[in-house]
Amino acid sequence: MLINVGIIGATGHTGEVLIELLLNHPNVRISHLYNSGKSLPGEQVISEVFPKFKNRLDLICKKPDWPEIKKDCDLIFLALPHTVSMNFVPKLLSLGKKVIDLSADYRLKNTSVYENLYKATHQDKNNLKTAVYGLPELNRAKIKSAALIANPGCYPTCAILSIAPLLALDLVDTDSIIIDAKSGVSGAGKKLANEYLFSEIQGDFRAYKVNTHQHAPEIDQVLSKVSGKKVQVTFVPHLLPIERGILATVYLKKACGYKLKVKNLVELYKNFYKTEPFVRIKPDGVFPRIKDVAKTNFCDIGVKDFGNKIIVIGAIDNLLKGASSQAVQNMNIMYKLPEATGLL
Amino acid sequence: MLINVGIIGATGHTGEVLIELLLNHPNVRISHLYNSGKSLPGEQVISEVFPKFKNRLDLICKKPDWPEIKKDCDLIFLALPHTVSMNFVPKLLSLGKKVIDLSADYRLKNTSVYENLYKATHQDKNNLKTAVYGLPELNRAKIKSAALIANPGCYPTCAILSIAPLLALDLVDTDSIIIDAKSGVSGAGKKLANEYLFSEIQGDFRAYKVNTHQHAPEIDQVLSKVSGKKVQVTFVPHLLPIERGILATVYLKKACGYKLKVKNLVELYKNFYKTEPFVRIKPDGVFPRIKDVAKTNFCDIGVKDFGNKIIVIGAIDNLLKGASSQAVQNMNIMYKLPEATGLL
Amino acid sequence: MLINVGIIGATGHTGEVLIELLLNHPNVRISHLYNSGKSLPGEQVISEVFPKFKNRLDLICKKPDWPEIKKDCDLIFLALPHTVSMNFVPKLLSLGKKVIDLSADYRLKNTSVYENLYKATHQDKNNLKTAVYGLPELNRAKIKSAALIANPGCYPTCAILSIAPLLALDLVDTDSIIIDAKSGVSGAGKKLANEYLFSEIQGDFRAYKVNTHQHAPEIDQVLSKVSGKKVQVTFVPHLLPIERGILATVYLKKACGYKLKVKNLVELYKNFYKTEPFVRIKPDGVFPRIKDVAKTNFCDIGVKDFGNKIIVIGAIDNLLKGASSQAVQNMNIMYKLPEATGLL
Amino acid sequence: MLINVGIIGATGHTGEVLIELLLNHPNVRISHLYNSGKSLPGEQVISEVFPKFKNRLDLICKKPDWPEIKKDCDLIFLALPHTVSMNFVPKLLSLGKKVIDLSADYRLKNTSVYENLYKATHQDKNNLKTAVYGLPELNRAKIKSAALIANPGCYPTCAILSIAPLLALDLVDTDSIIIDAKSGVSGAGKKLANEYLFSEIQGDFRAYKVNTHQHAPEIDQVLSKVSGKKVQVTFVPHLLPIERGILATVYLKKACGYKLKVKNLVELYKNFYKTEPFVRIKPDGVFPRIKDVAKTNFCDIGVKDFGNKIIVIGAIDNLLKGASSQAVQNMNIMYKLPEATGLL
To answer: Containing domain of residue D216, as a range?
Structure first.
């Protein structure tokens, strides 16, 4: 099988990583690269934007050409900024294209939460209803038949996979979950701002958006669904002086009646994820590190029982399992390819 | 005033930093440098161990020479490994010398806890009783007249200063304090181990000693005294890919009756530390970063109210306020010098 | 076609990278992993040595098993320390296996130079004679039919590719070539030594083995052959605070009669490498950077004319084009596969 | 003695470092901080620009106030961008103030070279004539009585100190000097540009302004004076993924008649710099590293004889000996203070 793929937003950070992945995918042909249509300059050879692609991919990245998309593409990846994707989705779907959107535009079902966080009116509430949240470990069946995938955020992917087994089995309090998360700088994309200069990041470490980050409502929405109860997490992200990777340290309080149910937390996690190709559970007392998941689609998880508390630590590559390779995993599922194709 | 200072353990990481500080101190003469007496080679010119001291300090570091110490030194800094310091202290005190011990040997009043953590029998329970925990912000009066200072650990310094105001005023639950701490690599000293190689640390981030670190009982001991209740914190340290600095993110639950007491947390912290030269409280909604405290003796603290939770973030330089410059601050207090001498 | 591959020395740095590459190669099955036979512990699951391989490759790495090698392997990669490989090669060749040796043991044709540099008597002078130096850009024809490949060193790969066009056309003096090279830390493998600790490397930069590095004679040997004259370069390597990558800045003096021959240096280089899939020449006035070649098999080269001088800058990934991916490129050539298979 | 100091350009990188140094200087009072007069916002508390100065220096940085300068300041440091300083110097000198200019405006005696490099007409050719190049090791006598100091550039300081002894004694060819220099990112100041983002610098290394850097003419001018012959160096700077420090590797060819003159290069260098407090010569075969000079005013130099070639390696902290601490050293000389005051 050969999937003809177009990327809109190819010159950004997730676009770059997506290209890298798709170049290695045996069932994909990158047919066209597009910018948002508002970028300057209008046309750029992608290997001039990213010299590392020289001799590997020398396509021109240009503004979206609808007749061309209609004719040449089966699937479109949207690697666009938040609030921009929703301007492309309706037309793409109406042309019968499958769409995987890496922005936040179709993740939050509650548009007032979205509009408050992203300071923009949602333009496509219609398709929002049918968009499938593309976390394969929770939603594989729906992803298979979806036309529009809302690819999860990086922090939510790591946090949700770390916590879901405990909530699914009703083992912990839902109102005292604390997620202390740490991310590499690439999480901020390629933003040109003083705070992302080498001289500011190197040797530094700091929290940001303390308990006010836009990913918290995304985590809440998904975990509430898993739990069946309203979940509202405490979420503090921090900025690591590294390029790639997220590690989330999660503190949970056991629910009443916990003892009756669980003997071995590690086995419980292994069992919960036993058919998952990209979730790896650490042995008891061992916790993950970013080095082992960087440049991979894996999520590594360590969990341990401490009396009335449970500590879970999860790690992913924010640009891969937290963005581009998860998008490819979703594509594999949509096209009934072996799920790990191009990802191992 | 001129204080004649000797350092035992001068070739380690804290020794190196201590020398740097004392070279800049207008009231100190570094009289002698010693190793533990068991190091090989027996004698080394300090500027050959640390070439950066060339032309600044070319003293020989040798095994301790008791007659020389007796004759030449007023104060001895012990920059020795844990379990080694306690073999030197009794004799130094008997010679009438003041001692500032940077190891853990005299920090924990409960010797069974100490012996369990450090796998060694305590050799000097007598002096342990009178040793003063050298955290100036809590113990300044006792430090003034102390002969033996137990200089605090790096994590405890950061955690205790971040939490003490809330416990002193009985504002938070004492049994649900979570400290998610992150430290630069120098916290591990100069240990030659695979896990501290550049290739292992660079680009990585991980937790270690999850809720089993030896600094937790030190934090518990001091906070219990501040609070008047038994405190047992959840403490998870992580390893940052930077050389220097600690940032601790602390999650606390408000105690019952909280609302009656507090209007403004930032003001409360500012007031608690209002006469402290080395604690800086951030404005509301602003949190500290490691860059601002690295290479200084400052502890920066940010605190914010989130409904039934409080989040406090503290930052210090682990080698300075968390070790060597705090030792100098203690020396200044012991000798009635202006407390910031040599430290700004 | 399926090549059954064995790796001896699988737990080292180049072994690790080689496994990563071979897992992605469509024509390779990793049949067996071996250590040098002298390692402790004797047997290890490779995914316990390198947790990132968990769920991807869970083979046991054990001491070499000759009957098994005879039966199961077509090709053996030797990722062993220098002076160790030569103890394995004779037997492997006698079993009719193809061998790609990533050590220095078969690179230097002059054994007295080898023995002086590596402090060991050469054990296999016989096979040394027929070993082919595996730099595809210069030796492709011989590689095709070779049984034993001496895979080039990292610095030599970068330096030789940067200089060869000028020497092949007799354009520069052969006795005043200066190579100022800078390498990431992984060049030193996983050596446990104080100088490779994070605290020593981070924030530092230094030269080492100034004009005495063991790769200089390898460069001299190959360039002398290209030039037809005796070449002896000045070679100063430096240690960069990064994990991967080499950049070499080369200073050359034009030979007499230069002007008669050359109009455009960039075109000359492009022409020299015009059929090479993994050498990319930068436009005039543009020079390469490590970021663009890291994690690839490419060598990027920039060259510029400065009056009587020429400056050439080359960049590769020391672990890939400078070691493991170049070994795979050699394998592809030996097995008549498209040369870029598994490498783009 | 108390020197009342003003800084114009206090919010830049060298301004920040200068403040740090002057806060530790026992004979300095920082009277006023000014911006260039064109900055927005007009007034800022310096400890809000640099939170690390909180509680140490809370002065307001505002636009230059001439009556205030006249009344309160003895000496003005200009930490302004190139082409801006020369607009301030004439008035400051006319008010009888001493001036140390950290920009390039008064370094190059040949204004056509200056104007070509900095794309600006020189506004103050008059004072340019009497400005003293503030490299104490070469110009101490003139600095003592100077009113206007042109503080040297970072690369020139490192390169000139590394080469001067050989040229002063006529030991090397003046037309084949190659300087391969590597600098930390702070050399670029706090420029907000994509190329200085953490994600671009971390893990990368590259050359820039290959043989076209504006510091080459400064090096040529000073070395020509030392040598008495016209010197034109080949100079290639590179960007290191560290914050601070320069290391320059210099390749030189011995002049005819060399052998008659020199027995021991290391002794020759030690002798040349024997009264210098801030130049340290390494033992034979040992070369400097950036770690040993970072955060100091030292220049470390290693030199070695290789047949007809000499290799010299020098290292400094680009922000200190290459900028701000050299400025303080110059101030100490101008005010007849012990030269190392506030610098050790």
So the answer is: 155-316
